[in-house]
């Protein structure tokens, strides 16, 4: 798994939590769906309200609150393909699904690069305008 990151003036910020404890908890909750996230948030509020608030903020930020996460969609597609008994068709279907998932991943990476380029262009324009105002 590659991790996307943003670089701002030499400082790299990880986009996703890695294989550490936070990443394992996130993956575990993703496998169980939105209900598990909601239960974790409620338990967080019960244990210590800032934890629940942090989980709620993360759910909204990562779009887990209003839809399924990308990971759970990915897992559901792969695990719901049950064998039909026709090995040629099953092989074709698996290869096609793998190709489509790879294309989807490449497209999402492309979109991320476009967003980053747009962000950089907007930031460069802001800095240019700021420099112009400071010179006047």
TrEMBL record:
Q: Where are the transmembrane segments?
A: 35-61
Q: Which Pfam families match?
A: DUF2852
UniProt keyword annotation of Membrane present:
yes
Key words of the record: Membrane, Transmembrane, Transmembrane helix
Q: What is this protein called?
A: DUF2852 domain-containing protein
- Native species: Paracoccus onubensis
């Amino acid at each position: 798994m590659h991790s996307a990151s943003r670089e701002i003036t030499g400082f790299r910020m990880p986009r996703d939590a890695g294989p550490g404890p936070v990443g394992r908890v996130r993956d575990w909750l993703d496998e169980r769906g939105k209900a598990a996230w909601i239960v974790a948030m409620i338990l967080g509020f019960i244990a210590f309200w800032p934890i629940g608030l942090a989980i709620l903020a993360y759910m909204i930020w990562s779009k887990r609150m209003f839809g399924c996460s990308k990971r759970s969609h990915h897992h559901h597609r792969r695990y719901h393909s049950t064998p039909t008994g026709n090995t040629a068709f099953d092989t074709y279907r698996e290869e096609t699904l793998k190709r489509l998932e790879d294309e989807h991943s490449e497209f999402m990476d492309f979109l991320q690069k476009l967003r980053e380029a747009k962000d950089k262009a907007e930031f460069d324009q802001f800095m240019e305008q700021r420099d112009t105002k400071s010179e006047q």
